[in-house]
Each structure stands twice: as C-alpha cells, then as structure tokens.
What does this fold into?
Amino acid sequence: MSSIIGPASYKLFGFFPTAILSFIVPVVGIGLFVYIIARRIAPLVRAAPDNRFDRIDLRIKNLLVIWLGQFRHPRYMLAGVLHIFIFGGFLVLSIRSTSLVVIGLADGFVLPGFGGLFGSVYNFLKDYAATFVLVACIIAAIRRGIYKPKRYAVPEKLGKDHTAEAVFVLGLISTLMISESLFEASEVAYAFQATGQTHFLAPLSLVWIFKAMLSSVSLEFLQGTHIFMYYVHDLTFFFFLCFLPMGKHFHVITSVFNVFFMRIKKGNIKPVQHGIKDEELDSLESFGVKRLEDFTWKHMLDFYTCADCGRCSDQCPANAVGRPLSPRFISIKARDLMFKNYPLSGEIYKSKLLVEDIFTPDEIWSCTTCGACEEECPLGIEYIDKIVDLRRGMVDEGMVPQSLQKPLKALEKRGNPYGKMEKKRADWANEKEFKAHHTIKDLGKDTADTLFFVDSITSYDDNIQEIARRTSIILEKAGIDFGILGKDEKDSGNEVLRFGEEMLYQDLKAQNTEAILASGVKEIITADPHAYNALKNDYVGLPPVRHISQVVAEKIATGELMLKDCQDPDQVYVYHDPCYLGRHNGVYEDPRQALDAINGLTRVELEKSRDRSFCCGGGGLMLFYEPEEDTRMGVLRVNMAAEAGATVIVTACPFCLVNLQDAIKVAGKEGQIVALDFTELIEQHLI
It folds into this structure.
C-alpha cells in the first residue's frame, strides 16, 4: 500500500464502507439544520413589515465594510483583533470544510478552480489560517473564561451567564482547526514514509507541526488518524452548524443578513407602520409595539443576531449612571422570549404585553436616544426605533410617566413643553439691550432668504435665550438675510416623536411645515441640534437645514467671518459633541474648525468624543423626566472634562448647556469649570 486510503474508500473493521457515514452525516446534519432554521424563521414571518430593500448600493457597501471588513471590531482592540482572526480564518477554512464533506464520498475531490497553482496558494494560506484561528481561540477562551471583562457579566435577575457557551463554541472551532490539520498532516506523513514523497507545508503552521510530530509513527496509526480525524471534523462541523441557531452564536449565520439590512439613514425614526401614510394613522387600531409580533422582521433579526458582546451597554450612558437600562439585555431578553414562544417543536405560545412580561416601563423610559449603542454595534443592531416603538405602545396604553404628563399637555395646548403663550415665543428678541442694536424680522410680516428656527428651549428658557441672541448677531455679521416665525413656530417635535406621542408629533410637524413653506425661505438655520435633526431627517419637503456651527465654519473659511485672538488664552477649552449633531448627523469637524480658528485658544479632546461622545442626558424629553439613577450623566461628563484638563466646556446644544451647567454645580466644580455655548464663544470673538 503506497498511499493512504481516504474516507470514501476506507472500510471500517475491514468490511463496513465509511462512505456510508460520509453520506449519512451531512444528510442528517443538513436536514436537521433546515428544520431548525424553518422554526427560527417562524416569528419573522409573523412580524410587522419593514422596508429594507432600498439603496442596495449602500447595503452592499455596508456588507463589504462592516461585515466582511469587520470595520467596527477594532474599537475594542484585543477582542476585535481576535474576532477578525477567527472570522477571517473561518471564511478561508469554510471552503476547505465544504470540500471535505465531498471528499468523504469521492477521494481526492477538489473544488472547481482550486487545482494547480491557485490550489497550492490556497492550501498555504489555509494552513496559516487554521493556525491563527486556533491561537486566537485559545487567547479568547482564556480572556473570556479567566479574566472575564466586566461587559460580559450578566446580573442574576437578567438571565444566565453565557461564558460556558462561549468557551464551548471556541472549543468546537478549535476542534475543527485541529482535526482538519491532523487529517492533512497524517496524509502527508504517510506519503513521506511510504514513498519518500515530500510536500511543501507552511512553516510553523499546525499541519507543519503535526507532520513533524507524526513523522516516526507507524503507517497503521497514520491511516487510523486520517480516518478518525476526518469524522471528528465532519461530525463537529455539522453539530456546530445545528448548534449555532440555539443561542447567541446564531449571529454567525444571521449577521450577514443583519448587516445588509441595517439602517441606511441616521437620525430619523421609523414610521408607526411601514406602508401606512401619515394621514392614515387615525385608522390604526393600535400604535407601536406591545407584543412580540409587533416588532418588524428586521428587529426580530436583530434579536437573533446579538452576539452578547456587551459593547452597546458598555457605551450606553443610561447604563453607566445606573439606570435600569442595558441595550444588550433588550436584545437578549427578546431573543430568549422568541426561543420560548417559538420552540423547536410543539405549539407556538401566545405573546403577552412586553412591558409586563420581559421589559419594565422604567427600562424603556431610561433611554435618551443618544445612539451610542447603535454606533458601537459591529452587527448593525438597532435600538432607538425599538425603544420608540415600545414607547408608542405604552403611550397608546396610557402608561405615561407622571413627570412627563405636564409637558406633553403643554405641548398639545401651547406648542411648547413649558406651557407658555405662543405670542411670547419671540420675547427673547425684545431684551432691552439687544433690541436697541438689532432688529429681527418676523416672517409672518416680512420676507427673508433664511429662517432661523429657534425651537422651544431657546425661545422660552430664560437662561438659554442668550443663544438665540448670539446666533442672531452671528448671522447678521455673516451677512445672512434671516427672520423667525415667531408665534407661528411650534416645537420641532424631535423629543415628542422619540417619546412615542405620534399624533402630537404629526400635529406639530404639520403646523411647522405649513408655516415654513408659507414663509418662502430658501434655507433653514438653527442653533439647536434637536431641531436640526427633526427638520432635516423627520420632516419632508423643507428647504435645506444647517446648524449654526456649519454656517460659522463655512463663513470663516470664505473670510466672511473674522475672529479676534482668544480673549482668555489661559483657559483650556474642550468641545463636547451633542448626540443629535454628532452621532445622528455626522457634524464633528465644523465646530472644532471654528474653535481652532480662534488664534491662541488652547483646545483638548475628551477621551469620549466624536462618535463615542457621552450623552449629557437631555434627549427624548429627559429634561422633564425623573429617572432612577446613581448619578447624573452630566456629572460624569463634567468629570471627564476635568480629567482632560479642561476649564471650559464648549457645546453646541441648548439641552447640553442646561445639563452641563447643572452638573458643574452638582459635581462641586463651580469656579473650576464653566460651560458655555458655541455661539457665545464665537460671538465674543467676532471682529
């Protein structure tokens, strides 16, 4: 016998053809897998519709960059690099695993195109891939099983720890790498002993190491190892395939679909129901998500896809301050409910109200809709739309927090959460000293090219009205012809929509849209990122919308705005990225460029900045909500600024300014740090 016998020709005990096993194992494995997947698809079939087949070009780009390129994984460097090695090696070796299934039925089978030079190159890379995957699995298992990073921890009340499952899966992957390498190494070692034939193997790879270890063993042992390792690999491969849909590792299968169907546009909120126009909302019997099947199929796919990595909760400001919200467990609890209500056999169970079954009202109201969780997720899982849909359902059921009932009634009656008269919306422009030097056009009487949309907090909060005045001075200095809607302006509704009061939001949007279009303006400028986001992403048919920081950066670049040297060069400034300007709309550089244009200004960066900025706590009507928490988000943010060595926190959002100014007092840092708005700093330095 000059060559080793393959599994397609080998006879166990001298009479039983192992080819029969090679046929039975994949048939049973594939059949069982198809059955499991069919049961797992059942809740998606019953789910609400979702339009995810638009912008195919961007979806393919996301697939290549986020899924295949693993773009977000290195944000957590060690875990990310380990995952990239395992993921990349797994993709490379999936080709080999597929060919091995056929080799069990046809010795020497080679996939089309994998012969000759290309096949040699692939085998060389494949051997290193198996080696790197095994090393990565060992490191990951030690890290997960021994060091146990905090973000993986599972509070007892929220379910069971998944460490054992994670280590078990790493063991399965390692078994695949070892068995495949031993299968090949035994064949190479056999050929060398029997005929003296040598094969070039990737130096220091698993196959290379195993071949060296097997160089002096008997031919009978090599033959037995070859067959045994083939079926170890075959059985492990199909067991792993069927095990994946049973828990958190379902993401190995679903992630490719989830990333392809992930949200394309940022900042907006999904409609109450896809396919239902705004004017048809009155005909709906129920609003939002109340039971499991009210989620869309994409959101259910999100639940299946959660890898339980904890990145979302690790970046969640609500979780950081001890609120009863952890985005990770929104997914995990919903996935567990899907497994429970849609078992692999037997009848499907009837779903209960989610906020009574798996979620709590405080958990859902704790979200500030800052978007940190979505920005961090490497698998395209969405949370804001789910939270808003759950809130819609709660509002529809009359489950509204006591502290939010008053501002909602005020918004319904007066168009602002403060309950103040509509005619007082423009009173900020009547401040004595300001009015003596500046005249603001009322677009109900005059015309202008640009609308300055002020919004409620800047119009009515006495401490924030200065932002409106400073913005007006900047616009005047930049030569922009602008006016305001005055009493015709209503709250933008950004918070109302995200709170879940859909019909109130629709009313505010309709009134604002009518007033804006009637004014005849060609563009809209606002100093409020929440208004900017609503007008830009939630409204339709309006003129282009810009934030004041974008205008300032542009006018400085063109020379239409000139800034004097820093008035207080001894101070150290830091810019705080507002969530609705940064993460939701990608405006990061304009405010920084404007600050850096002030000669002599010393600016530092916060550790959590740009798309990892830490929320001040003001989104989603949170200025009026009284949550359970250990500390304020704003206090943590002020402490971050102090650690960065800053003495002045500059922000470009009135909500952030309110929270940061209060947080400075609560943190006991008065006299050490001050917070001021972007417009104040710029106006102070206008020439």
Remarks:
- The CA atoms of residues 7 and 104 lie 5 Å apart.
